[in-house]
Amino acid sequence: MIEIRGSGIASALGSWRQEPGPLTQALAAAIRDAVVDGRIPVGTRLPSERALATALQVSRGTVVTTLAALRDTGWLRTHHGSGSDVRLPPEITERTAPWSVDHGDGLDFTRAVPAAPHAAYLEASRRAVERSAALLMDSAEPDAGLPRLRELLADRYTRDGLPTRPDQILVTSGTRAAFTLLADHLHDRTRPVLVESPTYHGALAVLRRRRARLAASPVTADGWDPDHLAHTIRTVRPGLAYLTPDFHNPTGALMPAAQRDQVAELAARNGMTVIADETLRDLDLRNPPEPVPHLTGKAVVAVGSLGKLVWGGLRVGWLRTDAARIRELLHDPLQARLSPPPLEQLIACEILADPQDLLRDRRDRLRAQRDHLAALLEGSGGWSFTLPPGGLCLWLRLHGTTATALATRAARQGLKLSPGPTFSADRTLTHYLRLPYTATPETLTRAVAVLTGLETTRR
C-alpha cells in the first residue's frame, strides 16, 4: 500500500483552488485528474481528514464532503479505522474506449484502438512479475522471443487448422514492427508493392518511407474484386503484397476461403510474397463467431499482435513463416530494435494461456457498440454503409460532400475524424470516412449528433 503525506498530496493537486465553482467540486475534480494523470497512484492511502484539511488549508467539512462524493462515485474505498485508498471506478475500468477519446480536447475518432481490459491485464502483469525471476538470471538479449510465448502462438495457429512449430514464430514489438522488418528484408526496389485501397495507413507510411512503388487494388465493404486483383498481380508483377483478409481495416470485409486460395496460388505462380495482416482476426462480431481459414501458402507470411484484442500498450506482435526465413530475419540488424521487452512477453504469455473470457467480453462489447453506432447512422441521406462482420470501424460512403470537407467542419465542433485519403495509396477515396465504434455508446451518440448537425446544416 502506497501512502502519501499531506504535503505530497498538496503538491500533486497543484493550483486546484483557481478552478471555478464550489471548493468541494474543485477538490474532487483535482483528485480525479491527479489519479488519471498518475500523480496520485491507484492504491494510494490518503492522509486522515484532519491532515488533509491542514495540508490543503480548507475546513474539515470540505474534506469530508469531497471524500464522500469520491467514495460514492467509486474513486475511493474506505476502511473503517484505517483511512481511504484511491481506486478507479467501474466507468473507467470496464470500458473498451481509451479515456483520451472523450476526456481530452473534444472527441477523438482518429484511432480505432481499445482500452486495456483493466482487471485482466493487471492480474496478468502481477503473475508475469512473479514468474520473472528466471529471466533476471540471463542477459535477455533480443532473440526470436520467449520459448513459452512462441509455443503458445504456434498452438493458436495449429488449433486454427494451420500446423505450426515454435521455430516458425518470430516475436516482435507489434504488427507494424513485424511488417517493418519484413519490408526491410523482402522489398525488391525493382518491383512494386501491392496494397489494398483502402488499407492501414501505418503500413503505407512504412512503404512510403522506403520509397516503394505502390500498386493498389480496390476493397469495399463487400470485399475484394477478384478479377482486378488477379489482373494487377499478373500485369504489374509486384514482388511483395500487403493484405488484410480478416475483417479488413478499414472496411471490415472478410475474404472468402476460395479467394484466399486464389491469392495464394497467384502469389506462388508470380513470385510474390504476401504479408497477411491478422491483427483483427480475433474480432469476429458474428453471433456466434464462425471459423475463419488462414490465408496460407509457401509465399504467405502472417503477422499479428495483441494490440487490438488486448491493448496497444502491450507491444507484442509476431510473424509466422517457415523456419529458414525466421533464421534469416534474426540476422537482420533491424530485428533487435523491433524485439519487445521480456516482461511484456511474459504478460502476453499469461493472457494467451487462457484468453477465452477476455475474447468473449471484447466481442460482446464491440458488437453492442457497432450495432449502436449503426442504428444511430441509419436513415440519413448523407451517408451509407455496410455493417461489417468484424473489426473496429464502419466505412462510410458520404453523399454530397467530401470526407476532408466534413472532417474539417467536424473539427471545428470538437470532433476529430479520419477521411478516406488517409487510407489510400494515391490519396483518392475522397468520399469515404472511417468511423470507429471503440468508444462508449454515450460518446458514439455525441459524435453522431455532431455529424447529423453538420449534415442538416449543409442541406
**Strands, total number:** 18
Task: Give the low-pLDDT segments.
Answer: none
What is the CA-based Rg, rounded? 25 Å
**Morphology call:** globular
Fraction of residues in helices?
A: 40-55%
Strand order of the largest sheet: 6-13-12-11-10-7-8-9
Structural class: alpha/beta
Question: How would you explain this protein's 3D organization?
Answer:
Helix content is about 45%, strand content about 15%. It has helices at about 5-15, 25-35, 50-55, 60-70, 90-95, 100-105, 120-130, 135, 145-160, 175-185, 200-210, 225-235, 255-270, 325-330, 335, 340-355, 355-375, 405-410, 440-459; strands at about 1-5, 45, 75-80, 85, 105-110, 170, 195, 215-220, 225, 240-245, 275, 300-305, 315-320, 385, 395-400, 415, 420, 430-435. The strands form five sheets. It has an eight-stranded mixed sheet with strand order 6-13-12-11-10-7-8-9, sandwiched between helices. Strand 10 (about 240-245), helix 13 (about 255-270) and strand 11 form a beta-alpha-beta unit. The mean pLDDT is about 95.
Write the layout of secondary structure elements.
Blueprint: E1 2-3, H1 6-13, H2 23-37, E2 44-45, H3 49-56, H4 60-72, E3 76-79, E4 83-86, H5 90-93, H6 100-103, E5 107-108, H7 118-130, H8 133-136, H9 147-159, E6 169-172, H10 175-186, E7 193-197, H11 201-209, E8 214-220, E9 223-224, H12 226-236, E10 240-243, H13 257-269, E11 273-277, E12 300-305, E13 317-320, H14 323-330, H15 333-337, H16 342-353, H17 356-377, E14 383-384, E15 393-398, H18 403-412, E16 415-416, E17 418-419, E18 432-436, H19 441-458
Parallel strand pairs: 1-2, 5-16, 7-8, 7-10, 10-11, 11-12
Antiparallel strand pairs: 3-4, 6-13, 8-9, 12-13, 14-15, 15-18, 17-18
Helix pairs in contact: 1-3, 2-4, 3-4, 7-16, 9-16, 10-11, 12-13, 17-19
